[in-house]
Amino acid sequence: RGRVLAGMGVPDLRGSLGLSTCYTEHDATQTGESETVIRLHRSASGSIATYLPGPLQPKTKAAAEFPITIDVDSAAGTVKIRSTGTPAQLEVGQRQWSDWLAVKFKLGLLQSVQGVVRFYLGAVTPALQLYASPIHFDPHAPMFPISWPPEYSGDLAHRIGTYHTAGMAEDHGGLSNGRLDEEAFLTQCQDVYREREAMLLDELSTLREGLLFCLFDTPDRVQHMFWRFREPDHPANRAGCRNGFGAVIEDHYRQCDGTVGKVLAQADDATLVVVLSDHGFGSFRRGVHLNTWLHDQGLLALRAGVWPGHDARDLLRDVDWSRTRAYALGLGGIYLNRQGREAQGTVPDQDAEPLKAAIAAELRGLPDQECQAVAVRDVVTREQVYHGPYTEAAPDLLVHFAPGYRASWTTALGGMGRGHFEDNTRKWAGDHIIDPALVPGVLLMNRPHRNSRPRLLDLAPTLLDGFGVPQDPAMQGETLLT
Questions:
Q1: Tell me, what DSSP letter sits at residue 268?
Q2: What's 251's DSSP letter?
């Protein structure tokens, strides 16, 4: 009887978490992160024949291409995109988003995949600048099922219209790379938010009993990208800080409040309404190069002739595992190079606990001399945080950063920067990967409930209690209802 639509983790049609395309007549345009740059050459008639890159061909491993023709009208400040997709002609105004274009890529003699894409026209003159969003699965015909039952994604699109299907729907990469300005990004965020609200209200209109859950992750993306406007001295603002965006986060929360009001208006006395977030937010001003710190402690070794910085490639590719005892990967996790676990492990079981204790003691309270601040509040073992059959999959140590600090972008990908710290100058200037005690989430319910240190583990017992279903003795957590 249940229905579910997949969210976080659904890739785009190219197998990425958000691979966009930048069309430009600027020959000097550099390729940014998670994007393809296609340089255009306009004909005398003003038309440009080009293509939309798609998924890889199974045999050649080259990207499949969907041909498009761009007709430029400089006087009107518009372009028309012609193709074999639907619609056959799509008009886009300057600094505007297009409607959805449904496209189909041929991957073989009898194989094709469908997707949907939107365009944003940044400029027509003096040089064309056109942005194509990541290609989303067509909810009517996804590459693989993204819902249960499989037809649900298409049924939903019939009712509310085509919608973003990728797990990371908001195009933060386009803003980071300068292909979108803040207004364009906010417009797209609003589109995603309205889709989610439409999904929620559509399901709520037919729900008579049972559980309905809807995730709104746009507040997270808005805070990541607009936190810098709350702090004029943030390193991300050194190139300049535009006016008019200081209240974006608060305004977005007011919009969320409006959605809650619409839900409460439909809830009767027998309906339990829970509004929660799993984390709060804070500033991300400085990144910590954890692998460089481990290297300087003599715990991580590099191949001969390689030094921390640009020489050391990401994904730990230049690590000398025979002389390495610990390494960092992801957003604050440290792993021991364990014998019997890692392929070239050096740390025997009897040395694991003393080594974890030594690393935690040295890293805890790590000073940032340049800023005269403490970067690390605490370092805990996974056993202090996690319990259950999947504890072994977690990092051996978890770094709880102080306000303003986070694992560096380089560390996240298993790389090594120069020194122990770097300023975060990216537009992604807010984050929540710090000491959990500093970024608590929110919990609101329309029934009396315990609000003292609630945990996510308490949510399932609370919902069961709301349905009058006994909690399984093996289940962690306890009901919050009083």
A1: -
A2: H
pLDDT tens-digit profile of 341-377? 999 999 999 999 999 999 999 999 999 999 999 999 9
Residues in Cβ contact with 265 at an 8 Å cutoff, skipping those fewer than 6 apart:
none
pTM exceeds cut of 0.85: yes
DSSP string, 258-289: HHHHHHHHH--TT---EEE-S---EEEEEEE-
Give SS3 for 227. helix
Pairing of strands 136-137, 129-132: unpaired
And the tokens for 11? 């890739």
Other C-beta atoms closer than 10 Å to the C-beta of 309 total 14
pLDDT in tens, 250-294: 999 999 999 999 999 999 999 999 999 999 999 999 999 999 999
CB 117 within 8 A of CB 86: no
> Distance (Å, rounded) from C-alpha 232 to C-alpha 229?
6
Answer yes or no: are the C-beta atoms of 423 and 438 closer than 8 Å: no
- Distance (Å, whole) CA 36 – CA 50: 13
Using one digit for the tens of pLDDT, what is the confidence trace for 65-122?
Answer: 999 999 999 999 999 999 999 999 999 999 999 999 999 999 988 899 999 999 999 9
DSSP bridge pairs for 328: 334
Q: d(Cα 217, Cα 189) in Å, to the nearest integer? A: 10
| Confidence check: pLDDT of 241 > 90 | no
Residue ranges covered by each domain of the chain: 1-180, 284-438
Helix (H, G, I), strand (E, B) or coil at 188: helix
Q: How far apart are CA 271 and CA 264, in angstroms?
A: 9
Q: Write the single-letter amino acid at 280.
A: G
Distance, in Å, from the CA atom of 437 to the CA atom of 183, rounded to the nearest integer, reads: 33
Burial class (CB in 10 A: 0-12, 13-18, 19+), 83: buried
Count, residues in the chain: 482
C-alpha torsion sign, points 136, 142, 148, 152: positive
A 10 A CB-CB count for 478 gives 15
Contact between 295 and 326 under an 8 Å Cβ cutoff? The reply is: no
Q: Please tell me the distance from the alpha carbon of residue 201 to that of residue 193, in angstroms, as a whole number.
A: 12
Question: CA 384 from chain center: how many Å?
Answer: 27
Backbone angles phi, psi at 402, to 5 degrees: -80, 165
**Residue 468, by phi and psi: left (phi above 0), alpha (psi -120 to 50) or beta?**
left
In which residue are the tokens 């230049």 written? Answer: 318
Q: For residues 416 and 410, is the Cβ–Cβ distance under 8 A?
A: yes
